[in-house]
Design goal:
Layout (H helix, E strand, L loop, with lengths): L4 E7 L11 E7 L3 E3 L5 E2 L4 E4 L5 E7 L8 E2 L5 E8 L4 E3 L4 E3 L7 E3 L5
Parallel strand pairs: 1-11
Antiparallel strand pairs: 1-6, 2-5, 2-8, 3-4, 3-7, 8-9, 8-10
Amino acid sequence: MSFTIVTVTGTVFGPDGNPAGLTGLEFKLSQVLVNFDTGEQYDSGLIEIPTDENGNFTVDLVATQSSTGKLAPSNAIWFCNLYMLDTYLKTNVSNPCSFTLPDSNPFVDIVTLI
């Protein structure tokens, strides 16, 4: 793949300030990315990940901003939604957030992006 992968980490906290286990996150790109050098396209689809029992998560996402300027569109963003894990339902617990993801660092804490 000719796209840069960035590992995004973080911890989800509940309203009481304690880490929130048994939550999940959804990530989705706002639009398809195109690499100008290769013509290759990337569409994320919906990426769903659970947190661990301490609210921690790690996910590999494609950078939406290229230091070489070879990605289009230049305004692509990631959307992120937090939900509670339940046996039967996914209950949204926050408004979706959005962020751009530069390729300048292979590892980043989501707190620095939103």
